[in-house]
Design goal:
By secondary structure, this protein is α/β, with parallel strands linked by helices. Helix content is about 30%, strand content about 25%. It contains 11 helices and 15 strands. It has helices spanning about 40-45, 115-120, 120-135, 150-160, 175-180, 195-200, 215-220, 245-250, 260-265, 270-285, 300-310, and strands at about 1-5, 15-20, 30-40, 65-70, 85-90, 95-100, 105, 140-145, 165-170, 185-190, 205-210, 225-235, 255-260, 290-295, 315-320. α2 (about 115-120) packs parallel to α3 and α3 crosses α10 (about 270-285). The radius of gyration is 20 Å and the shape is globular.
Length: about 325
């Protein structure tokens, strides 16, 4: 099968588009013929050796894929050949076929494959962040940094479902328009962020911040928190990992909350499955709708990842084998 192959931790242009052995369905594994593979920011870090996980080489990156069941192992009970499914896979998504255990595979019916991928990691991360980590309540103020990205769009839509007032923060007029189109009550830039948030909350401060950016934006938000607020640490797309002055948490009485969705899926599989059922239900009811910026040939993975890591993408990007 054709796949994107990482032969060594190296710059993105060193990724190879080549041949790998077809996966075989063993035990409780399902082999999926991939219709779309979702592109995520951590994928670009992983192949450069900059992520928490450092797999042995060679490996195929890609943590989400959707398509049609091609074969099943002898212990599989929930799926059959021909079913349309999506999966969270630690590795292997950037390929024509991928194998994953039955427990990590979800039925998608006639759902668009790229939409299904977006619901897995991008919407899954934001859902977990706002539900289990922030315990977001109706009427609270939610600030979403990186609001036009895949997880940002998801956080806006989910925040509105949960009854929050959503303030989106994005770097350009185009991105702020995207945030408003996806339900944000207000959309602002990063300039004078602390002063803007103080004015917009009437001096009370922000209840929940969804921060996938880091850097100076984190510093501004840390100084803008309401008492009992929750500042969610999603990632550092801005490139800088900030240093936190812990006296702020003491004086302002807010919480700094880490969000590692991959750990959540491993340690709380039942809660993860419940979350996915809720997300799929929201999708079926038209309450959430991923923004798919583009669909690109699998061979263009290096170029696509370069744009994602440079924060040049909006919404979700899918690779099509």
């Amino acid at each position: 099968m054709k796949a994107i192959i990482c032969n060594a931790f190296a710059p993105l242009d060193q990724l190879e588009f080549g041949e790998m052995p077809d996966p075989q369905a063993k035990g409780d594994q399902v082999v999926i013929r991939v219709e779309a593979a979702g592109v995520n920011y951590p994928d670009g870090l992983l192949v450069q050796g900059l992520y928490q996980m450092r797999p042995e080489h060679p490996f195929v990156p890609g943590m989400e894929a959707a398509g049609v069941v091609e074969s099943v192992g002898p212990d599989v009970t929930r799926f059959k050949i021909g079913d349309r499914v999506a999966t969270i896979c630690s590795l292997g998504g950037y390929a024509e076929k991928v194998a994953e255990t039955e427990a990590r595979v979800f039925p998608i019916g006639d759902m668009d494959a790229a939409d299904a991928c977006a619901l897995l990691v991008a919407f899954g991360t934001s859902h977990h962040a706002l539900k289990q980590r922030a315990h977001l309540q109706p009427g609270e103020t939610l600030v979403v940094l990186g609001a036009a990205g895949a997880t940002g769009v998801a956080a806006i839509q989910i925040g509105k479902i949960m009854g929050a007032r959503v303030i989106a923060v994005a770097s350009t007029d185009e991105k702020r328009a995207i945030a408003r189109d996806n339900g944000a009550d207000e959309a602002i830039g990063y300039e004078n962020l602390k002063d803007q948030l103080k004015t917009m909350t009437g001096g009370k401060g922000v209840d929940v911040v969804y921060d996938s950016v880091g850097g100076e934006a984190f510093d501004a938000c840390a100084r803008s928190m309401a008492r009992n607020g929750r500042l969610l640490i999603i990632g550092f797309a801005g490139g800088d990992i900030p240093k936190f002055p812990v006296n702020l948490a003491l004086v302002k009485e807010f919480s700094l909350v880490g969000v590692f969705w991959g750990n959540f899926t491993r340690h709380e599989p039942q809660a993860y499955a419940d979350n996915m059922r809720e997300l799929l239900g929201w999708y079926s009811a038209g309450k959430v709708k991923p923004l798919i910026e583009g669909r690109y040939p699998l061979s263009q993975a290096p170029e696509v990842l370069t744009r994602v890591l440079g924060r040049g993408a909006v919404g979700k990007i899918a690779l099509i084998p």
